[in-house]
Amino acid sequence: MVKAEKSRKKFAQTLRNIWNCRMLYLLLLPVIAYYIIFRYLPMYGVTIAFKNYNIFKGVFGSPWCGFDVFKKIFASENFWRSIKNTLVLNFATLIAYFPLTIILSLMLNEVSRAAFKKLAQSILYLPHFVSWVVVAGIATNLFSQQGGTINWILKSFGVEPIPFLSDNGWWIFTYVVCNVWKEVGWGTIIYLAALSGVDETLYEAAYLDGATKFQRLIYITLPSIKSVVVVMLILQLSRMMTIGLDAPLLLGNNKVMSVSQVISTYVYRLGIENAKFSEATAIGLFQSVVNIIILLVADKFTKMIGEEGII
Question: What is the signed CA dihedral for 234, 240, 246, 250, rounded to 10 degrees?
Fold first, then answer.
C-alpha cells in the first residue's frame, strides 16, 4: 500500500510538472508528431521483407513468407558484390577523410586573423552545399580521359592519359577525391567547436615551460579533443554499410560497374527499376542491423581501451 501510494504521488507530481510546463510541451508537439508519423509508423513497412509482397494487395494483404526473401538475396552474387564495394569505398573514404578533417581543423585553429579564418571556413564549407549532380559534372570535365582538364595537362607534358572514370582502381581514387573535396570542410565544424573549448591557460603554462608550438599541439591540443575524435570515429564506423545513392550512381558507368555498384544503387535497381520491393526492403533491413552491430562493437572496443564511448 505504501509503495502504491508513493507511485500515485509520483505520477501526480509528474502530471503537475507537465501542466506547469504545458507551453513548452505544446511547442514539442509538432516535432513529436513528425517523428511518430514519418519515422515510427513507417517502420511497419519493414514487414515487407518477410512477405511475398504484392503491390495490388498492399502490405496487409500480402502473404507472409518468413525468411525466404533473405535466403534469396543471400544467394545472390550481386548482393555480396555490392556489400564488398560499399565497404571498400567507405573504408577508403574514411582513411582519407578522417585524418584530413582533424589536420584541417588544427590548421584553421592556428589562424590568428579572424577575417581570414572566416573566409577560409566559408570557402571550405561551400562544396558541402553543392549538389552531387554538379559535382559529377565537374568531375567528368576534370577527369575524363578524352578532353578532361587533368588529362589535357598530363598530355601536354607527354604523359599518357589516365582512365580516371573507366578503370576500376582509378575510379575508386576519383570517388574518394570527390567525396573528400565535398565534405572535408564541413567535417571540421565539430572539431573546431571542440578546439574552442580547450583551456588557454594550458597553452600559456606550456609556453612558459619552453614547449614549442608542435609540442603544445601534441601534448595539449590533441589530448583535449581525443574524446571528440573517438566519438566521431565511432559514428563514422557505424555508417560503414551506408552509402549515398547520388555519388556512385552519377560517377559510375558500365565500365566500372564491378566496383561502382553499391548497396544503395543495388536497392535502387531492385526496388525502383525491377519492382522487387521485398528484396529491396530485406537488404535495407540487413544493412541497418549490420550498422547497429558495428556501432555496438566499436563502442565496446573504445570502452575496453579506456574511452567513454557513446552508449
Answer: 130
Query: What does the block give as the cell for 243?
Result: 552509402
Per-residue pLDDT tens over the stretch 127-160:
999 999 999 999 999 999 888 899 999 988 888 8
* CA–CA separation, 161 and 182 (whole Å): 25
Cβ–Cβ under 8 Å, residues 204 and 213:
no
* Kind plus residue range of the DSSP H or E element containing 60: helix 58-61
Q: What is the pTM of this model?
A: 0.85
Backbone dihedral angles phi then psi of residue 75, each to the nearest 5 degrees:
-85, -5
The count of residues in the chain is 311
Q: Residue 118 CA to chain centroid, in angstroms?
A: 25
| Ordered structural domains, the chain, with CATH | 2-50 (no CATH), 71-304 (1.10.3720.10)
Q: What angle do CA 155, 159, 164 make, to 5 degrees?
A: 80
Rounded Cα gap, residues 280 and 272, in angstroms = 9
Contacts of 271 (CB under 8 A, 6+ apart): 277, 279, 280, 281
Three-state SS at 51: strand
Rounded CA-CA distance 163/142 in Å is 12
Provide the H-helix boundaries in 110-245: 114-125, 132-143, 149-156, 168-183, 188-196, 200-208, 213-216, 222-224, 226-237
Torsion angle in degrees (nearest 10) through CA of 147, 151, 154, 159: -100
Could you read off the pLDDT of 259-309 as tens digits, one per residue?
999 999 999 999 888 888 999 999 999 998 999 998 888 888 888 877 776
How far apart are alpha carbons 175 and 203 in whole angstroms? 39
